[in-house]
């Protein structure tokens, strides 16, 4: 009976993850647009975009969405619901090729969030599983950030934005070690967490100076912590961050407009979207945009075949009838 229940639970979980993937795949143009058109992207610690196979990308995006949902529940102190979403997110990430995601820290952070839920639910039955999650999280962070965060600090120009993350990790490691009877190890973890806690305190004067320059209190605190209370460094970081946000907003608007264009042009016989880069190339030769899009759509984005149709009077007339 227990085996049957476990199997049923696994199947239910897989079905729910599949449903999430299906819903996500229909987010743009009813699933007709290529996977590259999804607007969730991962970066490694260098800020470089990480490229994946379509299968891995879809699983990762599903994991990220479920992780976001879990964090939302955590903020609402709905820890049972958060744990359910995070567990599904972990399962979604497990469908990826491990090599594809070993240098990003999303999965270790998800595992820390899961253990935080165990902690807040005060469920001692999870102690062994929690310890394993924390071990995997530390190993994952070490791969992503480098030993003792060396790679992360080099890339972040000496900033310590990972400090709060390691504070949470060590606090939870201390709790797990204590309940496992490893009291010396627990004291070591908790002492290290306390040291990081004091490092993260922000003086009111520094906070007032940064907020006085027009930045929000939350952003000011975060960047002052990252920069070890260096006001100039914090302000410089916030300025660059604001510029990046604005650039991303413009990129998102442009991409949404492109997606709307692709939806308007329809899909090829093989259900692919019209390639906008090839469309631009054909239009630059002198053909009308709608007509060029129809030629590419009809010919599976084959530029040469599209040009053949556009320059053939009979085929051109047929294209015009279709638009």
UniProtKB/TrEMBL annotation:
* InterPro entries, A to Z: NUB1 (IPR039749), UBA (IPR015940), UBA-like_sf (IPR009060)
Instruction: Tell me the superkingdom of the source.
Output: Eukaryota
Residues in UBA domain copies = 201-241, 273-313
Q: Which Gene3D superfamilies match?
A: DNA helicase RuvA subunit, C-terminal domain
User: Which residues constitute the signal peptide according to the record?
Assistant: none
Q: Could you tell me which residues belong to the region Disordered?
A: 304-323
Biological process annotations from GO: regulation of ubiquitin-dependent protein catabolic process
Q: Where is the composition biased (Polar residues)?
A: 313-323
SMART domains, A to Z: UBA (SM00165)
Classification via PANTHER family: NEDD8 ULTIMATE BUSTER 1 (PTHR12948:SF3), NEDD8 ULTIMATE BUSTER-1 BS4 PROTEIN (PTHR12948)
- Protein name, UniProt field: UBA domain-containing protein
- Give the species this sequence originates from: Salix viminalis
